[in-house]
C-alpha cells in the first residue's frame, strides 16, 4: 500500500551558523529528505548545488536534533540538522 | 540538599555578587565555592579589538551546557552548579561567562569548574566575531583549547 506521505515531514530543516552562515546563500534550508541517510550524504547533496554551497565542507561540525553528531550518523525526515565551524565561546 | 543547576544564556550582564548568593544562600553543606569569570580582552592576535558579537544556536546552546553540567555531576560530588553565558554585542572588559560550582571540598569544586570551562570552550555552540580597527573577523578555534579539553578524556 502506498503510504500517505506527509510532505511536511519528507524533509529536514538545515541550519547554518557563524562564518558558514555568511558564506552560504541562505541561513537555513528546508531540504527534501524522504528516507533515512547519513549526515555526510545530506551534506554532499546540499554542497552539490555548486557555487557558494561548496563551502559546506567535510571539516565542519554537525549537530542532529541539537546534539553533536558524526558524519555517519543517520538523518531521518523531520530532523533538524545544523552545520557550523568549530566553536569559539567562553 | 537537592542538586540545583542554573544554566542561562542571556544578552544582559550578570552580577557576581548575586550569582555568588545563588550558590551559597541557605547552603550549609558545601565548604568550597569555586567561581570563574571570563571577560572580553581588548587585544587578540596582534590587533586591538573594539567590540565582539557572540552568536549562538538557540535551543542547542542550553542543552549543550546542561549536558556539561550533568557530566560534571557524574564525575564529582557537587552541590550547586551554575553556567551563565552572554550573547550579542560586547565591548572590552565586559563579562562574557560565569561558572560557579560548590562542593563539600575544594578539590572537586576546582576540578569541576575547570572541566566545565574547558568543555564549554570546545563543545557549546557559541561563535565570536571581532570588530578590530581594520575589519570584522570570525575568531578561529584554537588548538590549545582542544588540548585542554582532551586532558579530561578518560
Q: What is the strand and helix layout of this fold?
A:
The complex is a heterodimer of chains A (90) and B (154).
Chain A: E1 11-16, H1 18-23, E2 28-32, E3 37-38, H2 39-47, E4 61-64, E5 67-69, E6 74-75, E7 80-84
Chain B: E1 4-10, H1 16-24, E2 32-39, E3 43-44, E4 47-56, H2 60-75, E5 80-86, E6 88-90, E7 95-103, H3 106-123, E8 126-132, E9 136-138, H4 143-150
Parallel strand pairs in B: 1-5
Antiparallel strand pairs in B: 2-7, 3-4, 4-6, 4-8, 5-7, 8-9
Helix pairs in contact in B: 2-3, 3-4
What attributes characterize this protein structure?
heterodimer, A: 90 residues, alpha+beta, Ubiquitin-like (UB roll), 5-stranded mixed sheet, two-stranded antiparallel ribbon, 2 helices, 7 strands, 17% helix, 30% strand, globular, disordered N terminus, B: 154 residues, Aldehyde Oxidoreductase, domain 3, 5-stranded antiparallel sheet, 4 helices, 9 strands, ThiS/MoaD-like (chain A), Mopterin_synth/thiamin_S_b (chain A), Molybdopterin synthase sulfur carrier subunit (chain A)
Report on this model:
The complex is a heterodimer of chains A (90) and B (154). Chain A has helices at 18-23, 39-47, and strands at residues 11-16, 28-32, 37-38, 61-64, 67-69, 74-75, 80-84. With 90 residues, chain A is α+β, with helices and mostly antiparallel strands. In chain A, a hairpin with a 2-residue loop joins β4 (61-64) and β5 (67-69). Chain A is globular, with a radius of gyration of 13 Å. Chain B is an alpha+beta fold and 154 residues long. Chain B has one domain (5-151): Alpha-Beta Complex (Aldehyde Oxidoreductase, domain 3), CATH 3.90.1170.40. Chain B is 33% helix and 36% strand. In chain B, strands 3, 4, 6, 8 and 9 form a five-stranded antiparallel β-sheet that branches. The relative contact order of chain B is 0.24.
SSE class of chain B: alpha+beta
Pick out the low-confidence regions of chain A: 1-7
Helicity of chain B, as a percent range? 25-40%
Q: How would you name the oligomeric state of the polypeptide chains in this document?
A: heterodimer
Q: What is the number of domains of chain B?
A: 1
Text of the CATH class of chain B:
Alpha Beta
Distance between the termini of chain B: 29 Å
Write the element-wise H/E pattern of chain A from the N-terminal end onward: EHEEHEEEE
Query: Low-confidence parts of chain B, pLDDT < 50 over ≥5 residues?
Result: none
Question: In this structure, how is the largest beta sheet of chain B organized?
Answer: 5 strands, antiparallel
Query: What structural category arises from helix and sheet content of chain A?
Result: alpha+beta
CATH topology of chain A: Ubiquitin-like (UB roll)
Catalytic activity (chain B): 2 [molybdopterin-synthase sulfur-carrier protein]-C-terminal-Gly-aminoethanethioate + cyclic pyranopterin phosphate + H2O = molybdopterin + 2 [molybdopterin-synthase sulfur-carrier protein]-C-terminal Gly-Gly + 2 H(+)
Pathway (chain B): Cofactor biosynthesis; molybdopterin biosynthesis
GO molecular function, one term (chain B): molybdopterin synthase activity
Organism (chain B): Natronospirillum operosum
Amino acid at each position: 500500500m502506498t503510504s500517505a506521505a506527509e510532505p511536511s515531514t519528507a524533509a529536514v530543516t538545515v541550519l547554518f551558523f557563524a562564518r558558514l552562515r555568511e558564506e552560504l546563500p541562505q541561513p537555513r534550508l528546508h531540504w527534501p529528505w524522504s528516507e533515512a541517510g547519513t549526515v555526510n550524504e545530506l551534506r554532499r547533496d546540499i554542497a552539490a548545488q555548486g557555487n557558494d554551497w561548496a563551502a559546506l565542507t567535510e571539516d565542519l561540525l554537525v549537530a542532529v536534533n541539537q546534539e553533536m553528531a558524526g558524519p555517519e550518523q543517520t538523518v531521518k525526515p523531520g530532523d533538524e540538522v545544523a552545520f557550523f565551524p568549530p566553536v569559539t565561546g567562553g | 540538599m537537592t542538586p540545583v543547576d542554573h544554566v542561562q544564556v542571556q544578552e544582559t550582564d550578570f552580577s557576581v555578587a548575586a550569582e555568588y548568593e545563588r550558590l551559597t544562600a541557605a547552603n550549609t553543606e558545601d565548604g568550597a565555592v569555586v567561581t570563574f569569570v571570563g571577560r572580553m580582552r581588548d587585544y587578540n592576535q596582534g590587533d586591538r579589538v573594539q567590540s565582539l558579537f557572540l552568536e549562538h544556536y538557540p535551543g542547542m546552546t542550553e542543552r549543550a551546557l546542561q549536558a556539561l553540567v550533568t557530566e560534571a555531576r557524574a564525575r564529582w560530588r557537587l552541590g550547586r552548579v551554575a553556567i551563565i553565558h552572554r550573547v550579542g554585542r560586547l565591548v572590552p572588559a565586559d563579562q562574557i561567562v560565569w561558572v560557579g560550582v560548590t562542593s563539600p571540598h575544594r578539590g572537586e569544586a576546582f576540578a569541576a569548574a575547570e572541566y566545565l570551562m574547558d568543555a564549554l570552550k570546545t563543545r557549546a555552540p557559541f561563535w565570536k566575531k571581532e570588530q578590530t580597527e581594520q575589519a570584522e573577523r570570525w575568531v578561529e578555534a584554537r588548538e590549545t583549547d582542544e588540548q585542554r579539553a582532551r586532558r579530561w578524556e578518560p
